[in-house]
Structure formats: C-alpha cells, structure tokens
Design a protein that fits this description.
CATH architecture of the largest domain: 3-Layer(aba) Sandwich
Low-confidence stretches: none
Helix content: 25-40%
Number of domains: 4
Shape: globular
Distance between the termini: 40 Å
CATH superfamily of the largest domain: P-loop containing nucleotide triphosphate hydrolases
CATH topology of the largest domain: Rossmann fold
Strand order of the largest sheet: 12-13-11-14-15-10-16
Length: 558
C-alpha cells in the first residue's frame, strides 16, 4: 500500500480514527481495527472509531501486542499517526498485567510490578477496604471473599487485573462430545469452535478459565460451551436469557454430548431441578419477592460445587447477576456473545467479573468460509401521511418514538415484502404489540409474544422450522436464542430505541447457512425524518462493525 492517498485511515490525536469506505483497503483496515477499537458512527462514506482503554485492554488480553496495534495504524493511515496516540496505545495496553491476583498458600495476593503502583493502589479509597495488609512493598493480601469486588474497584481507577489465582475444580462429571448425534448423523466440532474452547481452557492452567468468546449468532456458540464443559469435566451451571433458550440448550446437550436426561436439570418457573448440569434463566436468578428483599435463588446456586458457569448472551447479563458473579470468582466462568456492546455501558464489569475477551472471529470471515449465511441488509425508508406527520410534530419526545415506529404505512411495505418472499421462511419482528397484532390479523399469520404459553410457542417454532408455517410474527422474545435454522428473511418493523445488541440478535436469527447457498435478507423498516431514523443509524453500527453493507432504499422502490 505505497500510495498514501489510497490508505483508508485518518488517525487523530483525540483517539478517534476515521475510516473511508471507498478505499481499496477498507475491509483489511476494518478487520484490523475490530481487534482494538470501538466503532462509534457509520454514515455512508466515513466510519468513526475510537481507541478506548477497554478496547485496548481487551486487545491485550486476547494476545495482541502494542507494537502490532501501532503497526496496523501506521500501515493503513493516510497521514503520520500522532505520537501521542502511539504512546497512549503502548501505555494503556501495558497496564493490563501490571497488577496480578495470585495465590500464596491459602492467601489471595495482589501483586504489583513496582512498589510505586502498589502504593497507589493501597492508598485508593475504592480499593483499600478489600485489602487486608501488605506483606511487602509490591504485594497486598486481599479478602478472599472480595476477589470480584477488588477487580471491579481496580478497573474503575484504570488498573485492569490479570487474575491468575486459579479456580476450584468443582464436583467431577464425566462428559464427552458425541461423534454422532442422536439421529445417527455425524457430528464434527468446527476448527474455530475447538480453538475458542482451547483458548478459554488454556490447558487447565490459571491463565485460562475466565473470559468471553465472541462469535456470530448461528456460528455455534452452544457447541463452544459444550466443548468447554468437556474440557472442565465438572458440574456446570448454564445461565440463559429465557425458557426457550433453556430448553434449546438441554436439547443440544442431549443430542451432542454423552450426558443423560438424569444428569441435566431445568431450573425455571416451570421446573426446579438441580442436577450436575443445571440450565436456568437470568430472570430466575434475579427474582425476589419484593424490591428490598434478598435474591433467594442466589443462595440456592451458590451452595453448589460448580466447576464451570456459562453465561449465554453475556451482553444481556442483568445488573444483579454481576453481584452474584462477584461472589463466584473461584469458579471457571465462560461468557458467550455476538457483541460485547451493552446498552448500560457496563462492559468493564463484564471484563472484570466474567473475564476479558479471549477469542473472536469476524462475521464476514465465517460467512466466506460458509459457516454462516451471506446476508443482504436493506433499510427501507417509509413516509408518514400528512395527518401522521402532524400527530408526530405535536407529540412529546417519548411519544414521537412510538408514533414513528408504528407508522401504518409500514404495513404496505410488509405486504410487498411478503409477496416478494412468498417462497421463503419469513420472520416479522417488532417492539410494539399493537403493531404486531395488526400485522398478524391483516396477513393471517401466527404471532408469538411474551404472553404466548411456552407449549404453544414451542409448537409454533416447530411448525415454522418444518415449513408448515412460512411466516411468523414475533415480539422481543424472538431476539434471543431461538433456533430457526431455515429462516432466511427477517422484516424488522420496529426496534428498541438504538439497540446495537438487538440488531445483532435479530440478524442472527437468519444467519444459519442455507442448504441452497442463497443469501439471507434483512429488512429494517424506518420512518423517514423521525426518531425512528435516528435510532436506526445507531443500530447500523453493529452491521458495519461486522462488515455488512447497509443498503438504503425508498419504500416505493420495494
């Protein structure tokens, strides 16, 4: 890349990085940036990234070196990279690992690489309550019950801790992966799935055992979890987003591992089975009879001798579960997700309590290898009628969001898209129940909402998977861990504000590879010149992060 005019990056001294989309080196630069920078804006021609402390610490934890990051910036930058940026990259990345948690006999010890750093930590008001004494100038004894809390406190003052204190093995459990699933078909773990599990386990040493694996929806994160279970060979607690996900995990475990039905328990509102492998929901864990009461299920799960805890869709971890997790730092912890972005901006708590990002593969790489379907993403901009526009103008800011999202003109676009894709399996996904029920009634298609009984929900999913039902309307319950491998079209009629994580889940519903090799189609219907369009711009960030072009079309073109 000798001609600097063709280089796609402009690196600025305020830590922002501009990436020009029309450069020949755009894709290579984007893939490099994804390892150590956060995407913030993605209009048509220039995308804006930012170097943050957390993005650089995650890069360090994943094995990237400061010189590698600087070399990438130099390689793709149109102009010389500011010296302060190079210095900040090196200094920030070097902070990870300067503090380490280790064991000395029965004691939990915080070790600093210099006396000066330990003095800074010792004098820090947020950290000091968790420290007991200073055996020498570079170490401090930590209250063993506060292992998670001290890591949270330290990352807040800019010092991420490398936790090398090891883990209890947990109660042993014989578990292996099958060579053939129950139907008799062969089962092979994909190379990246095995590699992700190996990176997490790290040969059973203290350098493994906690961290987050980032893989696209449809890439088989569940298989990575099962591989980790086969490495750890211990009693396992699996936390999921909802009861549908719980039962999907149980089906997969029975299908692909040597576990028996007697060894797997469902712990939900409908069953309370504590077994060697227990699959439960975040909602059960965070339930309590009244606002200020303790969480009764915390104690139930804390009393078990788990060797591994798996957090499915870890980016959706409810805040109270961080408290539960802070008490479980002696257990191996695996987070599975498609994106580390959290709407509550508590990514640093995921880093300190579950663990840093240990492994990821860009979506487009897996798409090129045929492991997930190619996807074409289209934003369809829809006008409001004059009466609707007046109603929107007079509404409160909060009501404007709903007025734009429930624009009746979107139904005409839904009709046209259903006609265009009459031979496909189509999911219509939305936020507002009135809108979804109207679509269900107008087009005579079934609907699944949070109020749909689980038995009916499972039957509708089964009928959709078999092709008996070609169109299914789903509310937010369709965002999470629903295995619909043959769905190839998604029509999003409304979303949750500007949620990037929701866009990841919804796109993921259609990314299973198709038997005919055809691409999946993702349509987002957006009301023009409204808050709906503003929120859509934020949701686009996720698609741009993963390398998907986002075509914008007018409704009349559909």
């Amino acid at each position: 890349m000798s001609d600097s005019a063709d280089k796609p990056l402009i690196v600025q001294s305020d830590r922002t990085i501009l990436l020009t989309v029309d450069s020949p080196a755009y894709e290579d630069a984007r893939d490099a940036l994804s390892a150590f920078a956060e995407l913030q804006k993605c209009p048509e021609h220039i995308h804006t990234y930012r170097l943050t402390a957390l993005s650089l610490w995650n890069a360090s934890a994943a094995g990237h070196r400061p010189d590698e990051v600087v070399e990438s910036l130099d390689r793709f930058s149109r102009y010389p990279v500011p010296q302060n940026i190079k210095a900040e990259v090196r200094d920030t990345m070097a902070r990870y690992g300067r503090l380490r948690l280790t064991r000395r006999g029965e004691d939990l010890i915080l070790v600093a690489d210099t006396p000066g750093l330990m003095e800074e930590v010792w004098r820090s008001k947020p950290v000091r309550p968790d420290l007991i004494d200073r055996p020498d100038e570079r170490t401090a004894t930590v209250d063993a019950g506060r292992r998670g809390h001290v890591k949270q406190a330290l990352i807040k003052i800019g010092w991420p801790v490398e936790d090398l204190a090891g883990y209890v093995p947990g109660k042993p459990l014989d578990i292996d992966l099958r060579q053939n699933v129950r139907s008799g078909a062969g089962f092979t773990v994909r190379g990246y799935q095995r590699e992700a599990a190996d990176v997490f386990y790290a040969g059973g040493t203290e350098r493994g055992g906690s961290g987050v694996i980032c893989l696209p929806c449809g890439a088989g994160k569940t298989v990575v979890g099962m591989c980790a279970m086969a490495r750890c060979r211990a009693h396992t607690l699996i936390l999921c987003t909802n009861i549908t996900a719980v039962r999907q995990w149980i089906r997969e475990l029975l299908d692909k591992t040597t576990l028996t039905e007697e060894e797997i328990g469902e712990y939900t509102g409908e069953a309370k089975e504590l077994r060697p492998v227990t699959v439960t929901t975040y909602q059960i864990l965070t339930w309590r009879p009244k606002k200020n009461a303790p969480f009764p299920h915390f104690g139930v799960f804390d009393a078990r001798d788990w060797g591994l805890i798996i957090y499915d869709e870890v980016h959706l971890l409810p805040a109270p579960v961080f408290r539960f997790t802070a008490e479980l730092q002696a257990r191996r912890r695996l987070g599975l997700t498609a994106t580390l972005v959290r709407e509550d901006e508590r990514e640093d708590d995921v880093f300190s309590l579950i663990g840093p990002k240990k492994y990821d593969v860009p979506w487009k790489v897996l798409e090129a290898q045929g492991w997930i379907a190619a996807a074409r993403c289209t934003e369809v901009r829809v006008d409001m009628s004059q009466d609707r526009r007046l109603e929107y103008a007079l509404a409160s800011p909060r009501q404007q969001i709903r007025t734009a999202a429930e624009n009746p003109a979107k139904l005409d676009v839904v009709r046209q898209l259903l006609e265009r894709h009459r031979d496909d399996l189509v999911l219509v996904i939305g936020q507002y129940l009135d809108q979804l029920h109207e679509i269900s009634e107008q087009f005579d298609v079934p609907i699944i909402t949070g109020k749909t009984p689980n038995a009916e929900r499972d039957e509708l999913y089964r009928a959709f998977r078999s092709g008996d039902i070609p169109v299914l309307v789903v509310s937010k319950v369709g965002n999470f861990a629903v295995d619909l491998p043959d769905a190839n079209v998604a029509i999003q009629v409304s979303g949750t504000f500007g949620s990037r994580q929701e866009e990841a889940q919804r796109l993921g519903r259609i990314l299973r590879p198709k038997t005919d090799g055809a691409p999946a189609r993702f349509y987002a219907l957006v009301t023009r010149d409204s808050k709906d369009q503003e929120f859509a711009a934020n949701r686009q960030l996720f698609l741009a992060e993963q390398g998907y072009a986002y075509e914008i079309r007018d409704a009349h073109e559909i």
